[in-house]
Amino acid sequence: MLEWEVLEDEERPLPRLAEERARQGWEQWRPWLVLWALLLAAAVGMFWWRARQQELALRADLLQAIEAERRVMALGTPAEATNLIFGLVDPDAPETWRNQYWYQFAGSRAIPEPPRLGAVRLEEEGTLALVETLWTMPNVPDPAAREVIEPRAYRLANGQWRRTPLPIEEEAEKEELQTAHFVLIAPPDDLAALTSDPALRLDLEEMWQHIDANWPRQWLADTLIYLNVEPDEMAFLIGTQTSERTILVNSPRFAASKIALDSPLSLQAQYRLRVTTEVIRRLTMGQIGTGIFGEMAFTFRGILDQLQEAEARHAALTDEERRAQRNHWREQLDGAWLSPFTDPGYRSIVYTPVQAEQREQQQLAMAFVLEYLVETEGVEVLGRMAQEMARTRPGFAALCKQVTGLTEAELEARVREYVATTED
Q: Lower Cβ count inside 10 Å, N or C end of the chain?
């Protein structure tokens, strides 16, 4: 019988011919693969470099167009700058939009810092640029609230980027929110912002209750007030009055081009204040009856405006925001003072530069009187002043004396000391 004997010391591995050939093949092609990889990397790098250079050139051209708008906007002289203004606009833009654009230059606008360019998106084969224009508000105390974004569109026309209407996006159907005295009508996003975002939220019913408890009942509106939010790139923040019951309000999305960039109030705070001021004016819509004409109506109207604006500040702004605004007023006055109790004597709606400056100083002085009275006697003092106006229709000096018991000289001395002290 045959037996197999395994001799371990004579074992040898079998040759790996396939592996050897594969290794030789890789060695043969490796230089070529490395070369191809380098060429591909160079091509990708060149493509990226070209794309980056094109992007930088595009952004530089768009920023040049934005800067041209800023320079003309700072002039505030549309009659003299009409050709310049329309030279910035897409010639194919609708005439209505072009006229609205022109109105934006009706008054000079303080622009503390040049704008910057944010995100850019090209559409319509590179002829339409949708951009985010970034504005800085250096006087806002909160650094996180200093930057605001304004959406814009520019079209390439005759080799230059020119301002054009933002493409109209299909808005979701508006929704309504009704309370006891107000109806808020807005697209869903705006409705959510105005009712839920702490930076924008308006407590309309609390405002109504305060006015109802303190102001003359005969002045209060006895009907629902409608706030209709209508997003419009070029429309004013508060639209032209269409009825006593309806306030046309622009969306906060388009507020950046309609606020004071040198203000210490953020975009959201300015939006709240503007809307609140208009609401309070509508709540007291019956304030001027027939038979008040001429100088008396002018004085009465001016005092009433100040009371309404003071109520709005205390309804819409936080304590910190009001302090910041008062300190900003102090900087504007810069030590100058025009007595709020002295009638300037002119009644025209067109003022000389000197008269305009005096009018602004006097309005700030009146605002400081009301702020001082609120600080010392509580916000209810504004309602007491309105009640007194409804009874006797006094001038501002007599009104303050009737409410506080202080003489004109005593109150003015206290207010001037208040104005001279910057608040921390």
A: N
Q: Quickly list H helices, 284-379.
A: 294-316, 319-333, 353-377
Taking phi over 0 as left and psi of -120 to 50 as alpha, with beta for the rest, 125 belongs to: left
Residue type, 34: V
Q: On the CB side of 406, how many CA atoms lie within 13 Å of its CA?
A: 16
Residues 6+ apart with CB under 8 A from 420: none
Q: Is 110 helix (H, G, I), strand (E, B) or coil?
A: coil
Which range of 29-33, 389-393, 396-400 scores highest in mean pLDDT? It is: 396-400
**Structure confidence at residue 307 (pLDDT):** 95
Mean pLDDT of the chain: 84
**Alpha-carbon distances of 420 from 141, 183, 362, 368, rounded to whole Å:** 21, 43, 16, 11
Task: Indicate the residue type of 171.
Answer: E
Contact 193, 200 (CB under 8 A): yes
**What is d(CA 173, CA 186) in angstroms, rounded to the nearest whole number?**
8
Q: What sign does the CA torsion over 254, 255, 256, 257 have? A: positive
> Could you give the angle at the alpha carbon of 332 between the alpha carbons of 70 and 404, nearest 5°?
140
The two structure tokens encoding residue 129:
């640029």
Query: What CA–CA distance (Å, rounded) separates 419 from 409?
Result: 15
Q: Which two tokens stand for residue 409?
A: 């000289």
Residue ranges of alpha helices (H) inside 76-124 are: 82-86, 95-103
Query: What is the side-by-side strand order in the sheet with 128-136?
Result: 116-123, 128-136, 147-157, 160-164
